[in-house]
């Protein structure tokens, strides 16, 4: 008698990952956008790519979706190489970009009909799928209106419908909720959970910590073109240890006071690590044991040393703490630095034009 359950387990164990990226590298001129990115995504899971703007998230998914050609590395969808067989890989992928780009003249239904034609879907199948998407994403009242009249939330729903119309095995979303209001954002979250329950694999990129934490089964954190941490959100947070205390002695703490405080706090038994965050006015980020009086112990030690406390708070570890432990800066710091770099480049470009 054949053990069917055993046979199924063996078959599943040999299934290729829904997405495999190994040693991915991509350069644009002098800019090394992706230096070394590797991860796998299991079928039917939501996988989050977390990192600041400019970290390499969008370049990674553009290589996955055959929109950019890698300089090195392996990229596969369900065991199919996107380099060797891009048409077949595209059939298994749905891609929804960060910026919604819809023809403003066509209606939502007409855009879906065009998408169906591009994927060579039979007419009857296309009609059924379009009606299913209209119902699923609550577009009934808007399907026959020009998409140029849609709100931001409706445009995002239509974009999801277009990406899902051909029933892809893997749905790729680049910053899916940027610019959406809280209600629409919550609706998108719920819809993505429903897709996972139905067996669709979802890869999403985001710099929203709470979004990745709430949705993802596993996470890879990217910084400066490299994966610096990967695992489930719980695993990543457990790796960085105990509770977090963030404090400032003054609104902009002088270097000497920050160093003095660091020396004092490092001697306390409840303090495991002290990081001086220079990007935020020399704030101090402490890893402390989870004892209930750690906050009071820290405050008393600073008071005894006649050091003022401008602000102090204690919290459980977050994904931002994971990023801070790996890079020495928070995601917000990285976003600010990236924005400053872009502004500087724009200023230089403008200056060269005027020269």
Written description of the protein model:
This protein is α/β, with parallel strands linked by helices and 355 residues long. The protein is 41% helix and 24% strand. The protein contains 13 helices and 14 strands. The chain has a six-stranded mixed sheet with strand order 6-7-8-3-9-10, with helices on both faces. The protein has a four-stranded antiparallel sheet with strand order 2-1-4-5. The relative contact order is 0.12. The model is unreliable at 1-12 and 344-352 (pLDDT under 50).
Q: What is the compact description of this entry?
A:
Helix content is about 40%, strand content about 25%.
Q: Major β-sheet, in short? A: 6 strands, mixed
Distance between the termini: 83 Å
Q: Strand-and-helix sequence, N→C?
A: HEEEHEEHEHHHEHEHEEHEHEEHEHH
Flag low-confidence runs. Answer: 1-12, 344-352
Radius of gyration: 24 Å
Residues in β-strands, percent:
15-25%
Number of strands: 14
What is the 3D form? elongated
Based on secondary structure, the structural category is alpha/beta
Number of helices, counting only DSSP H or I runs of 4 residues or more = 13
Mean pLDDT, as a whole number? 86
Helix coverage percent: 40-55%
User: What strand line-up does the widest sheet have?
Assistant: 6-7-8-3-9-10
Write the layout of secondary structure elements.
Elements: H1 4-13, E1 19-28, E2 31-41, E3 46-50, H2 57-64, E4 72-77, E5 80-81, H3 86-91, E6 93-96, H4 108-118, H5 123-136, H6 152-164, E7 170-174, H7 182-197, E8 201-206, H8 209-215, E9 218-223, E10 226-231, H9 233-239, E11 243-248, H10 255-265, E12 271-277, E13 283-288, H11 294-304, E14 311-315, H12 319-327, H13 331-354
Parallel strand pairs: 3-8, 3-9, 6-7, 7-8
Antiparallel strand pairs: 1-2, 1-4, 4-5, 9-10, 11-13, 11-14, 12-13
């Amino acid at each position: 008698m054949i053990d069917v359950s055993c046979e199924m387990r063996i078959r599943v164990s040999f299934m290729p990952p829904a997405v495999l990226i190994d040693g991915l590298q991509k350069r644009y001129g002098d800019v090394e956008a992706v230096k070394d990115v590797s991860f796998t995504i299991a079928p039917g899971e939501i996988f989050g790519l977390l990192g600041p703007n400019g970290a390499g998230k969008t370049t990674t998914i553009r290589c996955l979706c055959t929109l950019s050609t890698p300089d090195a590395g392996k990229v596969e969808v369900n065991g199919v190489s996107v380099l060797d067989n891009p048409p077949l890989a595209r059939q298994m992928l749905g891609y929804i970009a960060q910026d919604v780009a819809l023809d403003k003249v066509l209606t939502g239904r007409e855009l879906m009909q065009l998408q169906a034609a591009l994927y060579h879907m039979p007419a009857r199948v296309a009609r059924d799928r379009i009606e299913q998407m209209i119902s699923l994403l609550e577009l009934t009242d808007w399907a026959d209106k020009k998409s140029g009249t849609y709100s931001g939330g409706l445009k995002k729903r239509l974009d999801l419908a277009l990406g899902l119309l051909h029933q892809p095995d893997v749905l790729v979303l680049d910053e899916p909720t940027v610019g959406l209001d809280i209600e629409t954002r919550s609706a998108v979250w719920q819809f993505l959970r429903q897709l996972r329950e139905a067996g669709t694999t979802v890869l999403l990129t985001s710099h929203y910590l709470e979004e990745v934490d709430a949705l993802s089964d596993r996470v890879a954190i990217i910084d400066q073109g490299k994966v610096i941490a990967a695992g489930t959100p719980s695993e990543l947070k457990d790796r960085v240890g105990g509770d977090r205390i963030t404090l400032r002695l003054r609104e902009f703490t002088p270097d000497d006071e920050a160093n003095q405080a660091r020396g004092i706090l490092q001697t306390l038994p409840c303090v495991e690590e002290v990081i001086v965050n220079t990007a935020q006015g020399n704030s101090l980020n402490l890893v402390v044991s989870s004892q209930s009086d750690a906050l009071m112990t820290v405050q008393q030690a600073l008071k005894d040393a006649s050091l003022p406390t401008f602000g102090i708070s204690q919290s459980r570890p977050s994904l931002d703490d994971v990023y801070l432990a790996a890079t020495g800066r928070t995601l917000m710091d990285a976003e600010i630095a990236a924005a400053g770099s872009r502004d500087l480049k724009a200023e230089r470009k403008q200056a060269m034009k005027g020269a």
